[in-house]
Design a protein that fits this description.
Number of helices: 4
Distance between the termini: 77 Å
Helix content: 25-40%
Strand order of the largest sheet: 3-2-7-10-11-13-5
Structural class: alpha+beta
Number of strands: 13
Shape: elongated
Length: 188
């Protein structure tokens, strides 16, 4: 009798592990930035002139960023990305100037309507309960030893397009975006 109970318990545990593995192999985790589709995207390399991207290029850029921040749960578990998320860093409420990149890309998402700053699926609020809005997000992408280093700056007002108040630290493999921008000639 004890052997039957032990066998049933063992089979139940094995069944639960199999079901959990199947679920984790199919469910995706998203640790990217929750933002709406931009009205336009502008790309700039270092100190060169900004270029508005075509609709096809914009779709590709959005897809590359989205795919870089999505993984199946099981893959994320083995890569150490399970539970990872983009984190908002409060830098200044008055605004600071974007960093200067001599050999990196600025990818600017422009919005005609003001957007709410979010952290995960919730509206971002600081410790005092203040909510923040923006009209642009600027991804700075530098290639360092074959990997892309990415920071996303929050631009509250397009009239001051080089001034940010907050930024996201985004830990995602966006080397594909850097490569795509080079392939499309945005560095020339």
């Amino acid at each position: 009798m004890a052997k039957k109970v032990g066998a049933i318990v063992s089979l139940s545990i094995i069944g639960i592990l199999i079901i959990a593995t199947i679920i984790m192999a199919n469910v995706k985790v998203d640790y990217g930035i929750k933002c709406g589709t931009p009205d336009s995207i502008v790309v700039k390399y270092g100190s060169k002139a900004e270029r508005v991207v075509s609709d096809v290029q914009a779709d590709s850029i959005i897809d590359i960023i989205s795919n870089a921040c999505n993984e199946k749960s099981l893959t994320a578990l083995f890569n150490g990305n399970l539970g990872k998320k983009a984190t908002v860093v409060l830098d200044s409420t008055k605004g600071k100037t974007l960093p200067t990149l001599s050999d990196g890309f600025y990818v600017r998402y422009h919005y005609q309507n003001t957007q709410d700053l979010k952290q995960g699926n919730k509206l971002y609020q600081d410790s005092e309960g203040n909510r923040y809005t923006y009209e642009a997000l600027v991804y700075t992408i530098k290639n360092i030893d074959g990997e892309a280093e990415v920071t996303v700056y929050v631009i509250p007002d397009l009239d001051n397009a080089n001034t940010y108040t907050h930024y996201y630290k985004l830990d995602a493999d966006l080397g594909g975006l850097y490569d795509y921008l080079v392939e499309q000639g945005f560095n020339k």
